[in-house]
Each structure stands twice: as C-alpha cells, then as structure tokens.
TrEMBL record:
This is Xaa-Pro dipeptidase. It comes from the Bacteria. Residues 160-366 form the Peptidase M24 domain. Residues 13-151 form the Creatinase N-terminal domain. InterPro entries: Creatin/AminoP/Spt16_N, Creatinase/aminopeptidase-like, Creatinase_N, Pept_M24, Peptidase_M24B.
C-alpha cells in the first residue's frame, strides 16, 4: 500500500480525533476536507473536486463515500476498508446517498459534525446536504476540529516537513543560478519546480509565485512571462513539498544595481523577522506575531505598504492553497505550541516607488527559540 506513515501513526491520529469528538459530544464527523482525510487515513486524491465524504463514527469506524474513479485510489493509498460508491447519473444527488448511508450506520437522530469551510464542500453541496439532513439529526459546524488537531506535528510529520524545507532550498539554489539580466522567468520557474521534482517532491498545493518589474509587487501567481532587465527586481514565493507537506519560502532578488529603497525595505524586513523570532514560541499567540510585525513596519512609516497578515501554519495541504486556516493576523488568540510548522513572511509592496521587497521562511517551533528550516541565510539577494 502507498502509505507515507505507519499504521500506528494513523491509529494515534484517530484516537486524538475521537477524544475531541467526545469532548464536543459528537456521534459522527463528516470530513470533506481532503487534507483531513489524508491526515487521518492516508487517502490521497484530487477527487475532492467532486462529491465525497469520510464518515467517522464515535466508535472509530470509518466509511468513505466517493465515486468509482476513486475506489482504487482509496484502496491503494489509505487504511480505509469500508468504501461505498455513489453512481454518476443524470440529476444525481449524492447527498441522498449519504443520508441513506448515515441511516445504515445507525446515525438517525445523531449529533453530527460537518466540515463546511473547505474547498471539498461547494455551496451547492452545502445546500443539498443541509436540505437532506435538516430533520435527520443535529448538525454542527465542525470545520476546524481536525484542522486544529493538525497544527502540531508528530515526529513522523516533522521528517516530511524538514525534507520539504530541503527541497525549497534546492529550488532557491536553482533560481539564483539563473537570476541575471536577460534571464527568462520561464527558465527560472522551470528550474525551481524541476528541483523539487528531481528531489522526489510533489506538486505544490498552489502555483509558485514569480514576478519581475512592476509584477514583482504581486503576491499571487499570474499567467505570462518576461525577461529580466539589466536593473530589475524578481519576487519569488514557492514551497518544497514532500508527501504533501509544505515548507514555503519567499525572497525578492534585485537584479543589477539595487536602489536605496530596496536596501531600506530589506532592512525593515530583516529587523521585523528577527524580532518575530524572539516571540515565535509557546507563551505567545498568533496575534502577538502580527502585532510585532505591524509595530515595526508602522514605526518605519510602512503601514500603507505592508499586508494585514504576515504568515500562517503549514502542513499537508491540497489544491487550491498550501495555507492552513490559522494565520498571523490581528487579534488571533490561538496559542503557539511546540512542533508547529509556521511560515512567516515579510511582504512590502511600495506602489509609490514601484519597489518590492519580501523575506520569508518556514520555522519549526520548539519549547524556546524557533528552528529555521532553511539552510539559506536571511541576506540581501543581488544578482
């Protein structure tokens, strides 16, 4: 079987989930987030673009309802043994199949938690599901129950995170070997993604971000490529990926002669990131991290040029985003714990002068100072 973890690892995860379900007095959970299914069972597919759900009962039994195309996928990549198929047909309503399945599982009148806030749950499916289950049982929005459990990583997961970080470093090495005047963004992007694949890594959950010139001020992927000018700026955001576990990095590379503004903004990024490293540990919250970011940036007069978040938790994720739910933004009360993999990024986009500067890497939290997972120093990159 194509499992990335020992069965004992999945058993421990299930035990953690069942304990939380007991605390919430849930008789069952309906998992729609692909990363939840992957974390709990190893089930690995992009079939969540269609209807599927994993039913987890309080007694620990697991039942997957999916399409025929994913039957063998589940058999090969997961520990699930009870797999039910809903049939593609005109006017099919798989939520009716689910209702019948829940009845077969003796869950009529039960208290059922559902993952609503996920890309595996479309608005249409949510409406159909609510209609079918309105009088079936007590429905609870449990969107973040598994997500919160996944925040702290086991030793086996950390091994994949660290391998992903090494692949991210390899991708940066590949980019820096090509970043120079007249270089084509297409070649740089191909080299970065190729480094991850050559190292045995996976596709990322979202596209690598690359932009130069005025497009260096973008922090989303867009279609289209250009060649670098003699004096230019190149913003890159990417992730190494191993067994779907991500370790992200972000850098702006200055091509040719750096401007004073480039160096000024890099200084702000570095100061802020180093300050955050002093509080990225138990005893502080995600909101504290953002507050430190905002304080230093704003004191430097950069309030208009910074973002309203400065990073997020990472883990095993599926399209369309490698971002976890928990982010470093104002007021987030979530406490930082040991063994979290957290991406912290400084992004300054000065549209007034057309200057971009970014600096970001993934950390593993410990009982004290965080461990930076990149072998690359936090230095000004000039080619």
């Amino acid at each position: 079987m194509a499992l990335h973890f020992e069965r004992s690892e999945f058993e421990a995860r299930l035990a953690r989930l069942l304990a939380r379900m007991q605390e919430e007095k849930l008789d069952a959970m309906l998992l729609f987030a692909q990363e939840s299914m992957y974390w709990l069972t190893g089930y690995d597919t992009f079939g969540f673009c269609f209807f599927q759900t994993l039913v987890v009962k309080a007694d620990g039994s697991l039942t997957l309802l999916t399409r025929s195309a994913d039957l063998r996928q589940a058999q090969l990549t997961s520990v699930i043994t009870d797999i039910r198929i809903w049939v593609d047909r005109v006017n099919a309503d798989p939520t009716l199949d689910l209702k019948e399945l829940l009845s077969d599982l003796d869950l009529l009148g039960a208290r059922i938690g559902i993952e609503y806030d996920t890309h595996g749950m479309t608005g249409r499916i949510a409406r159909l599901l609510d209609h079918q289950l309105a009088s079936f049982g007590q429905i609870i929005d449990a969107s973040y129950l598994v997500s919160r459990l996944r925040l702290t990583k086991s030793p086996a997961e950390i091994a994949h995170v660290e391998r992903a970080a090494a692949l991210a470093d390899d991708a940066l090495d590949a980019a820096l070997s090509l970043a120079k005047p007249s270089a084509d963004e297409s070649d740089i992007l191909a080299a970065m993604q190729g480094a991850v694949f050559s190292g045995g890594g996976d596709y990322p959950a979202n596209e690598f971000i690359i932009g130069s010139g005025v497009e260096a001020l973008l922090c989303r992927y867009k279609s289209g490529r250009r060649k670098l000018d003699a004096n230019d700026q190149l913003t890159l955001e990417w992730a190494g990926v191993d067994a779907h576990y991500h370790a992200a990095m972000m850098r702006t590379v200055v091509i040719g002669t750096p401007s004073h503004r480039h160096r000024e903004l890099f200084s702000a990024c570095l100061e802020t990131l180093q300050a955050i490293e002093t509080i990225l540990m138990p005893g502080h919250t995600f909101g504290d991290v953002f507050d430190m970011h905002a304080k230093i940036m704003d004191e430097r007069g950069l309030a208009r040029h910074r973002l309203n978040a400065c990073g997020y938790s990472l883990g095993a994720r599926f399209s369309p985003s490698w971002m976890e739910h928990e982010m470093f933004h104002m007021g987030n009360p979530l406490e930082i714990q040991e063994n979290m993999s957290l991406f912290v990024h400084m992004i300054i986009m000065d549209s007034d002068s057309g200057t971009a500067m970014t600096l970001g890497q993934t950390y593993l939290t410990t009982s004290q100072a965080p461990k930076a997972l990149s072998r690359h120093p936090l230095e000004f990159l000039n080619r």
